[in-house]
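User: Second chain of the day. Same drill as before.
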Amino acid sequence: MAARAQSRDRTLVVGAGIVGICCALYLQREGISVTVVDPREPGDGCSFGNAGVLSTGGVTPEAMPGILRRVPRMLLDPLGPIAIRWSYLPRIAPWLLSYAWNSRAEKVEQISIALAQLSKEVIPAYEPLLGDAGLRDMVRKSGCLYVYESEEAFRSARPAIELRRRRGIPAEELPGEEIRQLEPDLAPIFPRAVFWPGFAHTLNPKRLTSALAEHFARRGGSIFRGEVVALERTGEEKLVAVTRGERLEAARIVVAAGAWSRPLAAMLGTRLPLDTERGYHVMLPQPGVTLRRPVLSSEGGFVMTPMEHGLRLAGTVELGGLKAPPDPKRADAILKRARRMLPGLGEAGSETWMGFRPSFPDSLPVIDRAPHQRNAYFAFGHGHRGLSFAAITGKLIAELVRGGKTSIDVAPYRAARF
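Assistant: Same format as last time:
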């Protein structure tokens, strides 16, 4: 296989999810020739099935103080909001130990500050991309409502609420009688709610990713369908991405392959504790009820998001790796609770889906130059914040490639922290 002729300053972005496409667009804005490589169409992975929420309040780590007390429940309740498959426990045990270590109060505060840096840039970093592509109408700034079915659930959420407030995230606590003023179709079963006015959501995360990719192509970008099976160095300090049938040579490579990034990083000399949070969704094309904004079930661990093609129920966390088949009972559990929350919910034509969120045990992504390869960059590990943090990640990667100071401090997201 001969290496394809390439522009001298060409960059390969491995991954056509929302993070990879945003990296490609921001690099393109720097005048760099970019090719995106992925075996699937843009947005066909986790970007297809996420909850569609652009969270400006994503400052709470997954591992909060007291998480260790919840591990037995994770193992014993396979349908809970967070569950661990017994068969995967030996593989993920080191990840879980690090996860627990990061749940210490002082560490949570440190991680929260790092998440807040990214959260503040969620909307500002998307604005130029959406504006240039004519896609501003695909994002609604309608806030997000967190609802609680008991006073006990609300008290359990208090540490996370206060953590967000310490990071300056505006919130409005609502008693039961005010909840249905915001969302009349919700059942009167919630004594408490918190409204987060700064959140936004997209009407269709798959279409958003595809449309941004089309804009990238119209501006001269290239999208290559193929699975990268090897990354190689050449004697000219170039890198080559080897697919099944092609050798793509470039001046630099950005690894943004989501849950499949770990082996690619290892090919570049960096071993990282990346694992997956398996998330589920149920798509209801004819819900028969109306929500004006995303509504999060605290007890259920999922979000109900109104989209242009129906109502999406998405969320929960299953730690089970990339190979185990989906558990349809988890999607059923989401739907069962949604019926309780939205009386009269229409289920005709419903579809279920499962995807893989790439996650590190400290809830932070890696946004960095590869430690052992000066012309390679990492942009992965965003957990359930991939859609939210995609644009700011793309901006930071472009700044790292350009050299000089980045717009925010990227030290917390270095690969060398592990």
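The chain has two domains: 1-65+104-137+199-273+361-418, 73-103+138-198+274-359.

User: Great, on to the next one.
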